[in-house]
Amino acid sequence: MLQGSIGFGMGMIAAPVVALVQPTLLPATLVLLAAVVTTLTLVTDRQHVDLRGTGWALTGRVPGSVAGAAVVALAPDRVLALLVAAVVLAGTVITGLGWRPEPTKGALLTAGAASGLFGTATSIGGPPMALVWQGHHGARLRGTMSAFFLVGSAVSVATLAVAGAVDAEIMRAVLLLLPMPVVGFVLSRGLNRVLDPVRQRRVAIAVSVVGAVLLIGQQVL
Hints:
The protein is mainly α. About 80% of the residues lie in helices and about 0% in strands. Helix 3 (about 30-45) runs antiparallel to helix 8, helix 4 runs parallel beside helix 8 and helix 5 runs antiparallel to helix 11. The N and C termini lie far apart (about 30 Å). The mean pLDDT is about 90. It is a multi-pass membrane protein. It is found in: Cell membrane.
C-alpha cells in the first residue's frame, strides 16, 4: 500500500517482519513481490516517468546489484538479519534528515549503486533513491521510482539466481503471498486521494523502526 502511494517502502516495512519470522525468504521473496507493485504502479503512472534520471540511476544499479548478490551468497543468515535492521534504521534517518541533494549524474549513479547493493542484499533499496528524487511528488515520484525499481528488480533477481538465492521455497512463498501486494496496490489508489503522503511516510518510518529494533533484539538475545 505504501509503495503504491509514494513509490517505495515495501521493503522497509516487510523486511524486518520476514527476517523475524522466516529469514531464509530474504531477500529474493520481497524483491519479487515488490516487482508486482512496481509493475502495476508503472502502468498507472507511466506518462510521468523521468526517463533521463532513471537511466543514470540504473547505470549505477547494475554493479551495486552484483555486490549485493555476493553479500547474500557469502554472509550467514544472522549477519543478513542484522544488515536488514541496520539498513532500515539508516533509511529512516536518511528519509527524515531533510537533506536535498541535487539529482546530478553523479548523485544518481551513486544512489543507484547504493540502491542496488542494499536492495539486492536486503530488499530495501528505496531510501537512496527517495533522497535523490525527493524533489519529485505524486505521480512523477511514483512513476519514476517504479520504472527504476522494475528494471532494477529484474537485475537483482538475475544476480540472486546466479548466486543460488532463488529456489523452490522462495517461489512457493512468492505464489502464496502474491495476492497481498496486489490488494495493497488497489487500496493505495484510494488512499492517494485522501491521505497525505507525508503523514503516510511518517507512519511507515515509525513502523519500520519498531520492526528493526525488534529484529536487533531477537538477534542479540
